[in-house]
Amino acid sequence: MESMKGLIVGKLRSQIEYLRQKMYVAVLEKGILHSDVLKASQKLDEAINEFYAVALVKRLTRLILIRRCTIQPRQQAILNFIHDYPHRYPPTIREIGAGVGFKSRSMVIDHLNVLVKLGLIERRANSPRCILLTESCP
Questions:
Q1: CA end-to-end distance (rounded Å), the chain
Q2: How far apart are CA 49 and CA 71, in angstroms?
Q3: Other CB atoms within 10 Å distance of the CB of residue 3
Q4: Phi-psi region of 31 (alpha: psi -120 to 50; beta: other; left: phi over 0)
Q5: Alpha carbons 59 and 64: distance in angstroms, whole number
Q6: Which has fewest Cβ within 10 Å: 13, 33, 115, 119?
């Protein structure tokens, strides 16, 4: 997943540079002053840097919160079960409950919801095998 984000960021940067070059060509054709172009380019750089900074701060904040909060032993058992599940597909809620020793599906669902809020797993609605570990999962 991290490599996918890297590819997206790389493509965005290359598109930005391509657009910047087109801007320079258009400006030269229109006869706009070079100092005005530099000011516009600096504003663009500031906006891009601010965007990256905000994205980085959000990601770091999320990681810090995950590291600070301690998960319960049962939640860790669920994470371990999902991680060690022997098949190529994720386990169902019933399989998690049986594997961890819960008798109630609602207890499994409650713990899964906490893990989703912590960003340790991802779930998609309306799918029995929709539980995926995230890259930030310890």
A1: 15
A2: 35
A3: 8
A4: left
A5: 9
A6: 33
Tokens found for residue 11? 């493509």
SS3 assignment, position 104:
coil
List own/partner pairs for 20-29 with CB under 8 A and 24 or more apart.
Answer: 20/44
Average pLDDT by stretches of 10, the chain with 138 residues: 58 75 77 76 78 72 63 86 86 91 91 86 80 68
* pTM given for the model: 0.50
Which domains are delineated in the chain? 2-68 (no CATH), 73-133 (1.10.10.10)
What is the amino acid identity at position 1?
Answer: M
Please, are residues 134 and 119 in contact by the beta-carbon 8 Å criterion? Answer: yes
SS3 103: coil
**How many residues can be counted in the chain?**
138
Our measurement of the distance from residue 85's CA atom to the centroid of its chain's CA atoms, rounded to an integer in Å, reads: 23
